[in-house]
Hints:
The protein is of the alpha+beta class.
Amino acid sequence: MSTVDILDRDEQLIVETVREFVDRDVKPVVQELEHANTYPEALIERMKELGIFGLAIPEEHGGNPVSTPCYVLITEELARGWMSLAGAMGGHTVVSKLLLHFGTEEQKAKYLPKMATGETRAAMALTEPGGGSDLQAMTTHARREGDEYVVDGAKTWITNSRRSGLIALLCKTDPAAEPAHRGISILLAEHGPGLEVSRDLPKLGYKGVESCELSFVDYRAPADALLGGVEGKGFGQMMKGLETGRIQVASRALGVGRAALEDALHYAQERESFGKPIWKHQSIGNMLADMATKLTAARQLTLHAARESDADRRVDMEAGMAKLYASEAAMEIALNAVRVHGGYGYSTEFDVERYFRDAPLMIVGEGTNEIQRNVIASQLVSRGGLDA
Length: 388
């Protein structure tokens, strides 16, 4: 059974439409855009037309909601063409779900319709320049002054930061709270006085889409920008959102791994050495077999996490497993694709060098894989092991 056969016919058609978009519109231009580090305005506009920014938003708010397994396969298709495109909609989806799960009715009405069309694109702002994975140690704080919150601090590695119309900002509203997570909230911030994109971060891969540092100096947000209207809930809200985020990162890894495998398989059939196609040499054939096996296992882990999420279960362990395994598999598959291509794998004329530069992001993004192992171990103890 094909992977897409797990979906109903309507969702199959959506995945097929995205696949056609990638093959027709993305692949012919990706090398030029990526090597020039050019923001893909035309491709983003086409993604808006396809409804990709509304995949997690209900129809009542103008969205085009799909199951999480369908979302996984759509993300995989985008990343197969260019991982940066999948990244451009990743944080947006997480913020969509944060609003759906925790937002007030007024917040949903204000943001979701424009987010569904992509007119408003959303970003998450969690990581700080000196904080890394320890979110509870953040120093960005928001103090209440009358009907406003006044924010000071900095965030880094923010995708879509310059082009976002909405930023889900994780900050401390009660720096003295014990334990620290009880003093953390999410503010729905918009660009304005006091918020500045302080610099663009130079990157190994993940080109085209910007990753920036944000500086907040006496930035003021209205009190009703507090997600859900209650202080101190932000850490738990964001941890729930990151379940979706980690499934999305795993899906990006699937796309990069699949693209690398497909290119390697094609090259191994076309390239000959010692009088036969190189896939017939045992070392290359074994490499291709291992690549395909790990990609298949990663996809099944990711789809399992997606199905559990749709069953409204807690999936921090499942999402962590998917993200951990899929990202490590993508890195290995990308490296092996370079090996299969030999010297050409090191040339910018071939896409495999891009896969090799893009793959590490999924290992360190949305919580490093070391953090994922901590989450998995904690949940194994808490749940009393794996379910039979």
